[in-house]
Design a protein that fits this description.
23% of the residues lie in helices and 25% in strands. The protein is of the alpha/beta class and 216 residues long. The chain folds into 2 domains: 161 residues, Rossmann fold (3-Layer(aba) Sandwich), CATH 3.40.50; 40 residues, no CATH class.
């Protein structure tokens, strides 16, 4: 099969995992990994993974199947950074959905879902690893079961949305305790969206690193 992967940011932490996925499946398939929709060449299957670009119907028509990976139990949690928002809500079971791309974002028919568990001590890189593992499992599932899957429509009555996060969402309050802000600190991407706080006329960047279990 001819397969395309569109992932918008070359610096996104999933990028190395996608490159390894391409290497693993390139033996049996013709696969391209691109960063812009204009680079897509068409084929059998298109995966949109951490894609911030709107892929219109004309581009999708070049593929037999155009699929999106989304980190929520759709139709709940449509929109931006769903895993981060759910961690901040205190959720420990995260659902990842594989669905068809559609004109209305995150509204397409659902192909499959999987879940992963959070213990509550994971930092951003550990959360991402569990998320990426789940997304790649769904991609493998789609590849192995193409033609057998019967997509199902979403229940609009359960629809909810998350807004796009901004750097302001990573701001810490120096008057609050670390414990009170731990969820925010642990979901912050230390490279792209680090936590910060303003104090005594200066801005400080805070990077959280796990040193090991207490007593190690």
């Amino acid at each position: 099969m001819r397969i395309s992967l569109l992932s918008s940011d070359e610096k996104h932490p999933i990028r190395p995992r996608l490159e390894k996925w391409v290497e693993r499946h390139a033996i049996d398939h013709d696969i391209e990994l691109v960063t812009r929709a204009a680079e897509l060449s068409g084929g059998d299957m298109l995966f949109l993974v951490s894609c911030s670009e709107i892929v219109d119907a004309e581009i999708r028509s070049r593929y037999k199947h155009s699929l999106v990976l989304h980190g929520s139990d759709l139709p709940e949690g449509r929109g931006w950074s769903p895993v981060v928002w759910q961690v901040l809500e205190g959720r420990t079971t995260i659902t990842v959905t594989l669905l068809e791309a559609a004109d209305q974002v995150d509204s397409g028919d659902i192909w499959a879902k999987t879940t992963f568990e959070l213990a509550g001590n994971e930092l951003a890189d550990e959360i991402n690893k569990k998320l990426f593992d789940a997304e790649l499992r769904l991609m493998d599932y789609a590849l192995s079961n193409i033609g057998l899957i019967k997509p199902c429509a979403q229940d609009a009555a359960r629809e909810s949305h998350y807004r796009k996060r901004s750097p302001e969402d990573s701001r810490l309050n120096p008057e609050l305790s670390l414990a009170e802000q731990f969820e925010l600190m642990r979901v912050a991407d230390p490279e792209r969206f680090p936590c910060y706080f303003d104090h005594r006329g200066y801005r400080y960047i805070l990077h959280l690193k796990k040193a090991g279990q207490k007593g190690d």
